[in-house]
């Protein structure tokens, strides 16, 4: 489905004309489509629905907006969290603790204790010592912590180096060659209820082959662990499926992914957990911005918009591409460099791009910003955090106000202090 389309020459979000949002809320603003979110969430869970006792834990880091999380909770999703802050967000959104998975390579003792007290469903362990500390924390509470071991399968996800996580030298997971011995040792800890393994080899993966290779290695490991007498009841296959950012991008279909998973895991006799992030929210959001200036440049004119790397960091971080489009295009194009106002040479959204012709004051959007967009926002240059709007049919609501830097700082809850 395409929630962002032109009607009578004006770009809409569902039934709402984008200039109406700009008038009411100002720019820049992140705009989400509720029906696109529901559609993506249901498409994913129904594609995997044939798999035995599948669970869906949305990777909160992709979009931690509470309204987004609430909508996904209504679609049957739990959460994959990587911090105490995300635990709070998931719970505020009404996600049941049992449906929360705690990933991440640097969980602090405090975060693990809070997650234990909340009664979350699964800890994904990253190293042996973490497992021992978690076991102690659980024993102190007279409990056993439900956990799986995150394994690094030594497979390159094939995407950008900064978002590939499954190579041996990456910081994530334990080396698959020593995983069975490590599992033996952790399984002897009284405070742990170890019930399987997890992996996640990276993000924006555009080819099923690396996922398939990684899952195959996990299958071999499961056989080995069972031969050593362990009860393996759950395997967490992570997230990572890519989305088309460029018109020519071709991504594996959900049906192909589901068929690959079904075929490979048929004999595993485990419940599967999925941790999709980008594929759920990525295409359901846009960043609406206004052109501040068109400045003559040495090679191309510079289209300077009011959105910056502080609203959308992916281009500056990973050279990521986000399609730029005018809200009321006149049918002509120009070649330009797209820049934000932040005082960083890297605050660019594209160099020498062919775009809809725009001039000072025009509205435009960056497409596919619903994942890792607002989630990575900062107040660098003392810029406010941009507001976020949810469109549902012909109505829209502000689901997060614009926050000035003093508001952001004063909103820091005391509970995050050590
Ligand atoms: C980031 C992350 C995900 C989600 O990745 P996507 O590419 O957004 O699907 C899932 N699991 C873990 C452990 C992650 O770090």
Automatic annotation (TrEMBL):
<keyword id="KW-0028">Amino-acid biosynthesis</keyword>
<dbReference type="Pfam" id="PF00278">
    <property type="entry name" value="Orn_DAP_Arg_deC"/>
</dbReference>
<feature type="modified residue" description="N6-(pyridoxal phosphate)lysine">
    <location>
        <position position="61"/>
    </location>
</feature>
<dbReference type="GO" id="GO:0008836">
    <property type="term" value="F:diaminopimelate decarboxylase activity"/>
</dbReference>
<dbReference type="InterPro" id="IPR022653">
    <property type="entry name" value="De-COase2_pyr-phos_BS"/>
</dbReference>
<feature type="domain" description="Orn/DAP/Arg decarboxylase 2 N-terminal">
    <location>
        <begin position="39"/>
        <end position="281"/>
    </location>
</feature>
<comment type="subunit">
    <text>Homodimer.</text>
</comment>
<feature type="binding site">
    <location>
        <position position="318"/>
    </location>
    <ligand>
        <name>substrate</name>
    </ligand>
</feature>
<comment type="similarity">
    <text>Belongs to the Orn/Lys/Arg decarboxylase class-II family. LysA subfamily.</text>
</comment>
<feature type="binding site">
    <location>
        <position position="372"/>
    </location>
    <ligand>
        <name>pyridoxal 5'-phosphate</name>
    </ligand>
</feature>
<dbReference type="InterPro" id="IPR022643">
    <property type="entry name" value="De-COase2_C"/>
</dbReference>
<comment type="pathway">
    <text>Amino-acid biosynthesis; L-lysine biosynthesis via DAP pathway; L-lysine from DL-2,6-diaminopimelate: step 1/1.</text>
</comment>
<protein>
    <recommendedName>
        <fullName>Diaminopimelate decarboxylase</fullName>
        <ecNumber>4.1.1.20</ecNumber>
    </recommendedName>
</protein>
<dbReference type="GO" id="GO:0030170">
    <property type="term" value="F:pyridoxal phosphate binding"/>
</dbReference>
<feature type="binding site">
    <location>
        <position position="240"/>
    </location>
    <ligand>
        <name>pyridoxal 5'-phosphate</name>
    </ligand>
</feature>
<comment type="function">
    <text>Specifically catalyzes the decarboxylation of meso-diaminopimelate (meso-DAP) to L-lysine.</text>
</comment>
<keyword id="KW-0456">Lyase</keyword>
<dbReference type="InterPro" id="IPR009006">
    <property type="entry name" value="Ala_racemase/Decarboxylase_C"/>
</dbReference>
<feature type="binding site">
    <location>
        <begin position="275"/>
        <end position="278"/>
    </location>
    <ligand>
        <name>pyridoxal 5'-phosphate</name>
    </ligand>
</feature>
<dbReference type="InterPro" id="IPR022644">
    <property type="entry name" value="De-COase2_N"/>
</dbReference>
<feature type="domain" description="Orn/DAP/Arg decarboxylase 2 C-terminal">
    <location>
        <begin position="283"/>
        <end position="370"/>
    </location>
</feature>
<feature type="binding site">
    <location>
        <position position="372"/>
    </location>
    <ligand>
        <name>substrate</name>
    </ligand>
</feature>
<keyword id="KW-0210">Decarboxylase</keyword>
<keyword id="KW-0457">Lysine biosynthesis</keyword>
<dbReference type="InterPro" id="IPR029066">
    <property type="entry name" value="PLP-binding_barrel"/>
</dbReference>
<dbReference type="InterPro" id="IPR000183">
    <property type="entry name" value="Orn/DAP/Arg_de-COase"/>
</dbReference>
<feature type="active site" description="Proton donor">
    <location>
        <position position="343"/>
    </location>
</feature>
<feature type="binding site">
    <location>
        <position position="314"/>
    </location>
    <ligand>
        <name>substrate</name>
    </ligand>
</feature>
<dbReference type="InterPro" id="IPR002986">
    <property type="entry name" value="DAP_deCOOHase_LysA"/>
</dbReference>
<feature type="binding site">
    <location>
        <position position="278"/>
    </location>
    <ligand>
        <name>substrate</name>
    </ligand>
</feature>
<feature type="binding site">
    <location>
        <position position="344"/>
    </location>
    <ligand>
        <name>substrate</name>
    </ligand>
</feature>
<dbReference type="GO" id="GO:0009089">
    <property type="term" value="P:lysine biosynthetic process via diaminopimelate"/>
</dbReference>
<dbReference type="Pfam" id="PF02784">
    <property type="entry name" value="Orn_Arg_deC_N"/>
</dbReference>
<keyword id="KW-0663">Pyridoxal phosphate</keyword>
């Amino acid at each position: 489905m395409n929630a962002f389309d032109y009607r009578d020459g004006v770009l809409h979000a569902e039934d709402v004309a984008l200039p109406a949002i700009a008038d009411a809320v100002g720019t820049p603003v992140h705009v989400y489509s509720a029906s696109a979110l529901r559609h993506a969430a249901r498409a994913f869970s129904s594609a995997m629905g044939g798999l035995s006792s599948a669970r869906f834990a949305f990777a909160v880091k992709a979009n931690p907006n509470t309204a987004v999380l609430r909508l996904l909770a209504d679609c049957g999703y739990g959460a994959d969290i990587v911090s105490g802050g995300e635990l709070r967000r998931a719970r505020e959104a009404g996600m049941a603790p049992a449906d929360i998975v705690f990933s991440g390579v640097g969980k602090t003792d405090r975060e693990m204790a809070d997650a234990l007290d909340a009664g979350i469903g699964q800890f994904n362990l990253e190293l042996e010592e973490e497992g021992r500390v978690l076991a102690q924390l659980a024993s102190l509470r007279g409990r056993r912590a439900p956990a799986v071991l995150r394994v690094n399968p030594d497979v390159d996800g094939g995407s950008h180096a900064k978002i590939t996580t499954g190579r041996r030298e990456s910081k994530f997971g334990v080396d698959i060659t020593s995983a069975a011995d490590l599992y033996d040792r952790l399984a002897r800890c009284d405070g742990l209820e170890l019930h399987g393994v997890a992996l996640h080899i990276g993000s924006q993966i555009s080819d099923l082959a690396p996922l398939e290779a990684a899952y195959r290695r996990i299958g071999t490991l499961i056989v080995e662990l069972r031969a050593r007498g362990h009860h393996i009841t759950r395997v967490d296959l992570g997230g990572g499926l890519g989305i088309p950012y460029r018109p020519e991008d071709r991504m594996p279909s959900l049906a192909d992914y589901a068929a690959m998973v079904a075929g490979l895991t048929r004999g595993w006799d485990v419940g599967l957990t999925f941790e999709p992030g980008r594929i759920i929210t990525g295409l359901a959001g846009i960043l609406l911005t206004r052109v501040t200036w068109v400045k003559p440049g040495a090679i191309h004119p510079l289209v300077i918009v009011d959105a910056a790397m502080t609203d959308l960091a992916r281009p500056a971080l990973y050279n990521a591409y986000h399609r730029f489009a005018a809200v009321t295009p006149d049918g002509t194009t120009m070649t330009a460099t797209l820049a934000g106002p932040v005082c960083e040479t890297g605050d660019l959204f594209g160099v020498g791009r062919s775009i809809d012709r725009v001039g000072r004051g025009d509205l435009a959007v960056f497409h596919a910003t619903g994942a890792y967009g607002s989630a990575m926002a900062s107040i660098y240059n003392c810029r406010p955090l941009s507001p976020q709007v949810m469109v549902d049919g012909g109505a829209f609501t502000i689901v997060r106000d614009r926050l000035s830097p003093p508001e952001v700082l004063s909103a820091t809850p005391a509970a995050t202090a050590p």
